[in-house]
Amino acid sequence: MKVTMKDIANEAEVSVATVSHVINGTKKITEDKYKKIMNIIHKYNYIPNSTAKNLRQKKTKTAGMVVSSFPDSFITQMVYGVEERAREMGYNILLVNTNEDQSYEEETINLLHSRMVDGIILSPTSNDIEYLNRFTDDNFPIVLVNRHHDIVRNTAKVTGDNYQTGYDATIHLLKHGHNKIGMIYGVANVSTTDDRIKGYKEALKQYNLPFNESYMELGHATVAGGAAAVKSLLKRHKDITALFVQNDLMTIGAISQIKEFSLKIPEDISLIGFGDFASAPIIDPPVTNIVLPPDTIGKTAFDALLSKINNPEYMKHIELPPSLITRKSCGCK
Question: The whole model's pTM is what?
């Protein structure tokens, strides 16, 4: 539903002229009325039609990038990829980290849209992103990167093949003879986690092994969370002999906790991490990681955004494949 100035005036119980004065700053309005009107404007993400049309026709050469978590080295490198390609194309990037806060994400998208960026690259905090349709249905260019959901219409998507990531990591551990494999994931209710779990399940199925929900543990994508997840998993299942840990900070926490239990890697517990962080080759033992190319994902996401800006019909989903970097932590020599 398109909201008009008249709708805002009716809801605020003021005249259309008063709303116009607030929007254009042409007359002093009482603080209470001003706040009431501005709250309604933000609530409906209202932009005056003539202003929006005029400004949208002129490219600002600025794009927004909204990510869900910045300390993660995978996300950091993905952001670098976006920024590098943006600079090459003469664009500026406005970067916002939502820190997995969904309401802040929605606020940020509203703000960037109202500031007239040419488009937005978004790695969402969760699958609850139906609110984006009010932008995408109006042909505002949005590219979903890393995480995505089909509930959003008219977007392009650039992701890693997370199903294959979960499958390949699990198959590798199964080939090493493990059939009690714990999985530590960072965030629930996002496509990256959901798809990796699907891949994990398929690998177990191929080896005629049942999927056990209690071999899954949430690690909150932090060092402390990774350590707590190992503690919790091994308390429940002393027979776990391998772990697949889904981000670098949790991997560091997991290794620390395993060593605190006086267990040896890989002799007592084998481990595969995700994302090849800088210290992975020099940790004792060096860490096997399954990796998606964050830099390439970032650059491709910006290319997809430019395609979307220039062609509203562009709706491609580009998936990049993972690769496994084998070192000693999984039992490889």
Answer: 0.78
Strands 323-325 and 288-291: antiparallel
What's the rounded Cα separation, in Å, for the pair 158 and 315? Answer: 10
> What 3-state class would DSSP assign to 293?
coil
Report d(CA 268, CA 266) in Å as an integer.
6
Task: List for the chain the helix, strand, coil content (%; round to 5).
Answer: 45, 15, 40
What would the DSSP string read from start to end of 224-244? HHHHHHHHHHHHH-TT--EEE
What CATH number does residue 243 fall under? 3.40.50.2300
Nearest to 299 by CA among 56, 65, 58, 62: 65
Indicate if 138 and 36 belong to the same structural domain.
no
Cα distance between residue 252 and residue 59, in whole Å? 44
Structure tokens at 281: 């080759």
**Element containing residue 266 per DSSP (H, E):** none
Is residue 39 scored above 70 in pLDDT? yes
Q: In this predicted model, which residue has the larger pLDDT, 71 or 104?
A: 104
- 170 is in which domain, residue-wise? 162-291
Q: What value does the mean pLDDT take over residues 278-286?
A: 92
Q: Is residue 291 within 8 Å of 124, Cβ to Cβ?
A: no
Q: Do 188 and 283 share a domain, yes or no?
A: yes
Beta bridge partners of 289: 273, 325
Instruction: Quote the CA–CA distance of 64 and 116 in Å, as a whole number.
Output: 10
Give me the amino acid identity at 106: E
Helix, coil or strand: residue 7: helix
Q: Are strands 120-122 and 62-67 parallel, antiparallel or unpaired?
A: parallel
Do 81 and 156 reside in the same domain of the chain? yes
Lowest mean pLDDT among 72-81, 202-211, 253-262: 72-81
> Residue 149 and residue 189: Cα distance in Å, rounded?
10
Residue 240 sits at the vertex; the CA angle it makes with 235 and 245, to the nearest 5 degrees, is 95
